[in-house]
Each structure stands twice: as structure tokens, then as C-alpha cells.
Amino acid sequence: MDLKPIKTETDYQNALKRLEVIFDSPIGSPQSDEADILGLIIDEYEKKTFPIEVPDPIEAIKIRMEEMHLKQIDLVAEIGGKNRVSEILGRKRKLTLEMIRNLTHRLNLSPELLIADYPLSK
Question: What is the pTM of this model?
Fold first, then answer.
């Protein structure tokens, strides 16, 4: 087991190839232990090199609506009217505190995600 930090794209590709070889090793074997450690090293490199940005509140709402197969009309109770839902999702109006509270429960999104600032369309 010759493990070292991943510093370059070549190191990363080599680590992925090695992990592919030892991935299905029997639990408790030296190769299984190596796979566990190598997986952690790869994960850390990927988090630093390929960060995933959190979507803005409106994108998060749209993503969750798609996941839950909801239409705009399904959020009328949480936002307050068909026109208001359209204005919010069209970025013509900002979410209010009450809307954030309602959407947090309805869509199971964190309040921290929904309170983030986002630009309005012009």
C-alpha cells in the first residue's frame, strides 16, 4: 500500500484506476483497507478541485418542484396566488419571510438555502 496525497490530475487519474482495481476486495483485507483510505483521499481532492455550488433559492425551488412533480399552481398556498408564484419563480419579486417558512415545510428545503440573496430579473 503506497498511498500519497493527490496533487495533480495525473495523480487523480492514477488513484481512480487503482481504486477500480481494488474496489471489490474482501472486507478486512489489506486491499480493502487501501480502498477505504484511497476513497477518502479521492473524495477530498474532488471536493477541492470540483466544488459543487449551492443553487440560489429560486433554482433550489425549481429543482425541488421538478423532483416532486409539482407545478406552479401547487405552490399557491405557500406563496399566495398564481400571479405571485409566477412573479417569484420569474425573479420579479423576492421571497418574503412567510413564504420562506411555508416553502421550507412544503418542499423540505433548509431555511438557510431559501434566505440567500438572489438577483431579480430586469
Answer: 0.63
